[in-house]
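Suppose you are handed a protein chain with no further information: no name, no annotation, nothing but its sequence. What can you learn? This example shows the usual starting point.
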Amino acid sequence: MRADEVTDPLPELSADQIDEIRRGVRNAAAASHTELARVCAGYCEHFNISYQTIRKLADVPLPNYLDIGSTTRARQPVQPPTSSLTAEQTAALLDAYRDTFLTSKPTAAARECIEAFALQFEVPTAAIREVLATDERANRQQYGALREAGKRQRAAAAEKEQQQRAEAKRRAAEEAQRKKQLKDMPKGMRVEDYVSRATHCPVCARDFGTNRIPPHGKPHACRGSGRLGATLCSIHQARRENDKSRRASGSRSVRTVGGGLPGLGHRA
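A reasonable first move is to predict its three-dimensional structure. Written in structure tokens, the prediction is:
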């Protein structure tokens, strides 16, 4: 008689006994089919219950191939599970298993795949592993190519992630530098207006009043100008510092030609 044919009512068991059965069955089911059969047989004999009763009490799915109907039959050898899979089941298993080689964590993905199909097909994990091992031995080149493809895919993903982090870091640094350069901008003034106040570069004589540099553009630096390779914002900074110095010392104003750096133009 099969386990799913047993219709005996639930026995009188205490809450502690039910909890003990559930905990023991849960641990045994996670270990192996042999351990599950041994534990269920022990509970059938100890509590005088059937395997169908254990299935009703358990909080995890149990297979129906354990044919334990009474304490007398529990002492008999437990029938081993069937490990044969249909052609459709085998094809689905192999397709899912091969896909695990292309995941970010192939070992963990393969383990989850084996456990999921063992539970779905109600066969032990050992039977699933045997099917997979047989297929790998028969198709060594195919599995070798899958492993190499997975390595390349993971390397490309890691490189892309590294580039994205570097790009984000670069943008954050540029934004911080821009905010630092514009920290002395008069309150209420727009960035466009602040940039438009610059005129000629003191080295290359480029007229920033005509050819404005966008707020997010690259800093202007003259090639070969050395320490005078001034950026647009450094011109403003030098002019402000010079104005502060003149006010502190009480010296007269020094004007420059075309708004260049103080000291590089002609005195008024």
